[in-house]
Amino acid sequence: MSSSNNPIPSGPLARRASRRVLVQHGERKIWVGGDAPVVVQSMTNTDTADAVGTAIQIKELARAGSELVRLTVDRPEAAAAVPYIRDQLDKMGIDVPLVGDFHYNGHTLLTEYPDCAAALSKYRINPGNVGKGAKRDTQFAQMIEVAAKYDKPVRIGVNWGSLDQALLARIMDENAAREHPWTAQAVMYEALITSAIENAVRAEELGLARDKIILSCKVSGVQDLIAVYRELGKRCDYPLHLGLTEAGMGSKGIVASTAALSVLLQEGIGDTIRISLTPEPGGDRTKEVVVGQEILQTMGLRKFTPMVIACPGCGRTTSTVFQELADDIQCYLREQMPEWKKTFPGVEAMNVAVMGCIVNGPGESKHANIGISLPGTGESPAAPVFVDGEKVATLRGDNIVGEFQAIVLEYVKKNYSKAA
Ligand code: SF4
Prior knowledge:
By secondary structure, this protein is of the alpha/beta class. The chain has 13 helices and 17 strands. Bound molecules: iron/sulfur cluster (SF4). The site of iron/sulfur cluster has 13 residues, from loops.
């Protein structure tokens, strides 16, 4: 028998040791890597040249909790809009650092639009989309020189859909010369990792400080992503940005991203994440932020918003009151968080249980900070409410949702006010 007091280990492995990179706008400092918490980021899908529309979407993403927001900088009109977007956000009190996403012409845009280069807090450079032949080295160097001049960090973001073809050809040639050639899949992994690391080393040689570099190697397959990042994590100490590229729509995108990222995060790999969901037509872009936060929070890595524990419902719940209450209370809690974060520190750790009937309702409710057990079919139309394990009220009638929200708010004020 084990002599340990805690024989069944729990929780993720220690975070992989990495350098810390500071991404900053004014007083707002976001650390990526080292012992900093895993950062949630997102990306706009507006035309950046539409400065007002883009500023509004960035505001929504930041309000939802995105700690960095990336935007496409693809042409002169977009580069010209960036300082205006930054200015608009500052006027609205939104200090989220902005990351510029550059492909093909980043060297020209960053050089010809110095206000854009200065307004951004970080640049993302895809080494597969920098240029071909001799131009590639010159154009890459131009972007790194701008980053060094403005003291901006850079993410060297490799993507298997735009892998540097010259580098891939070189790795394939090396493979062909092996006595026992690797599989095509292993060659692709090697090309992704080599591209990221060689370009990071090149950036350092060009004068970018080592603590200004973050790496990513995005692929769209769950097992591929896990394999590539495990190896990348072993070969370097740069902070790593995780994301399953082109994750897809709806539940598939969420499940695939969660499956891939949770394995890596559990192994201590990953310093910042983005969930690349394809929004439904007219859908809410902030969903990718919520999913990213929920992955980290349900894994116990960070706390962002009070969590609602709800039972799935079954044949004992024939009315929709239970689903409506669970949904209403989750939305209510999330909507309050931008303000509550400032006024009620620690509230993000609160748990609220919404249960459908007496079978597990009272038990689960007692384990939460606040819980309500709604009446199942055939049960008396009363909903006991538990606060810190004690029954404090029984709600009845048509306004159970409103009364329960009032109890939640009272609990928050009492337990999380700065003076409490
Ligand atoms: S708590 Fe009640 S309603 Fe909810 S799943 Fe369990 S038995 Fe069904």
